[in-house]
User: What shape does this take?
Amino acid sequence: MTRKRLGLKFYGIVQGVGFRPFIYRTARARNLAGFVKNLSDSVLVEIEGDESAIEHFLDSLDTHLPPLAVIERATRKELPLQQDTTFKIEASEKSAAIPVHISPDIATCDDCLAELFDPDDRRYLYPFINCTNCGPRFTIIYDIPYDRENTTMAVFEMCEACRKEYEDPLNRRFHAEPIACPHCGPRLALLNRDGTGIKTQDPLAQCAERLARGEILAIKGLGGFHLAADATRADVVAKLRERKRRGEKAFALMVRNLEDIEKIAHVGETEWEILTSPQCPIVLLRKKRNRIIADNVAPGLAAYGIMLPYTPLHHLLLDKIPYLIMTSGNQRDEPICIANREALTNLGGIADAFLTHDRGIRLRCDDSIAMSLNGKMTILRRSRGFAPAPLKLHKKFDPPVLALGAHLKNTICLLKDDFAFLSPHIGDLETPKARDYLRQSIRLMEKITETTPGIVACDLHPSYFTHRLAEDLAGERNIPWINVQHHHAHVVSCMAEKGIKDYVIGFSFDGTGYGLDGKIWGGETLIADTKNFERVYHLRNFPLAGGERAIQEPWRIGLALLMDSLPEDWEGNAVKLGLAEPGALAPVASVLQKRLNTVEASSMGRLFDGVSAILGCRKVISYEGQGAMELEAICQKSTGVSLHFSRSGNEFDYRPLIRDIVDLKLSGESAGKIAYAFHRAIADLVRDTAQRIRDERKLDRVVLTGGCFQNKILTELSSRLLRSEGFTVLAHENIPCNDGGISLGQAVIAAEKGEWNGNGR
Assistant: This one.
């Protein structure tokens, strides 16, 4: 047998995720000698032994890594034999601070799940079971390094049995900081609305009983509280909507297992992989006709948002009641509640009782949302399970950058060296509490990433809170602040995710973004790199009557489109279409004609809203994007209905498309077929425009970004048409295409510019 020694270095998320004990166990199992230890920027492994055993060891790194570990790069070299006889874990190097990549919270692993339901296991039915491969991480940390004393678990002293597991390198709970058991760990409690305890031997069983009889429960999870209710009862769902003041927006579902999910929704191979991944996000799944889920859970939509249980508590609860609404425990436009007292105060008017525990949550973290697009997982909200895992960038940047993100679906991004750290979902910055949460997130993300930003980046919109905050932070810290145009940030967000910096064709379609001309952009075709952009085409402008009110009442947008497209008979057509009550049409038409209290927009998202109103889907909305989502939901594929934009200079002219939509609708064509033809017309526009630019500029990489590309039909149609013409299509996967990904684009653009902004100098 040939004996050899190899030196291996592993870079990536390889510290604090069970990587060293995994290496230790794998080496010992193959009778290899040597050591493993943390270096300042990597993990160093030296292994010595039989050559075939070393090859088996290396194969294991491809197939059996701990679920939280990510090897981004590895090096290897042959070393002189040392004749070692044992393998050991050596102390970490102290010569330099070890860069900590805090791993996200991860769903309960199969090993812990097996123990949870094993009557002979000492953690049988214990709702806080975890190990190195699963459980809380990010949400319990106070400070770095990630040691137990720097987490909310510090108040729980390990019992002798847990301590023995914690210190044993061969045990999968070796240095699992949240390790606990019924003797020494957190415990559940059931509380009334007023915070008084409810006497019960089994708080979780009584919680399930209350849910089954129609009560609403606030349940403390990993990253905050959920509001839980029986998803099979329309009366209970209606009660939750009334108490939470949540009109028609869909509720997320937690379902016991895949078998139960398949009774209510279609699950493809990619969806199955996403559902069962360690991140366990909410997954958008096409509905099946069923009599199980109440119709008012996700009214008017084609999909449910469904997740599997991802904590031991959830598994125990869903074992008793298989279909639950699990929606964020918050008041409208406010952050998710994390503290027991906070939940009692804020959710007391919603929940009938509270299932709490005494393990503190330090950092808020909503559930992530994902879907299958083009056969791949696409993240729509990047939070629990994904944040704050870093994104590797195409180069190192200096100084570090803090990007404050968008006004809606806010996240922040810290760019340090060649890594971008995105915060969990913060949300819409409409309330003082949400803005306070943003400030807290900045402080906490800077602390756990050990980052002192040298540049602040923000959206160009002068009225956004983030814009004013950037100016304040720049003044306080004496650093530059850089304004970044919204749609350029969208494009660069996708480019950064894909590791591209050179020019691309970018289609940035969304609802609202402040343009360089002071108008609302959103139907943009850009030629962009990571520093500059050129607006080469855009949707024809149309007025929004009443500004924000037009977004809430899309019939106003529909009226503006009719007046522009059918000026001779807009009123007659509006009446025939039933766009609004006749008495409401005239005053709004007058506002539009005189351009009083209007805002000019080139927004594709608003065009979706206007077409939705014209087709009778949604004339008034109760949540953002409702009209567009319901328009997508009614689509019926048809080759017999065709719609087209025209082009006037650098404008996409929607007027012939609107005229044809009106003719088709009034002639009796189905709204579903017209809706599909509308989606196809936009996809055709994307392909044709990309071809024109390629002919002129010799560019063949196309970015699809912005909230409109959350639309599965639009994205898959556009991608297929582009690829059929030989284009390379770049679409988001790990970073949201909506405003939740804006902060990444802002950070990279600001880092590339690396200079004082004219307004902030």
Confidence is low (pLDDT under 50) at residues 755-761. The CA atoms of residues 397 and 417 lie 5 Å apart. The radius of gyration is 27 Å. Residues 377-498+738-753 form a domain with the Nucleotidyltransferase; domain 5 fold (CATH 3.30.420.360).
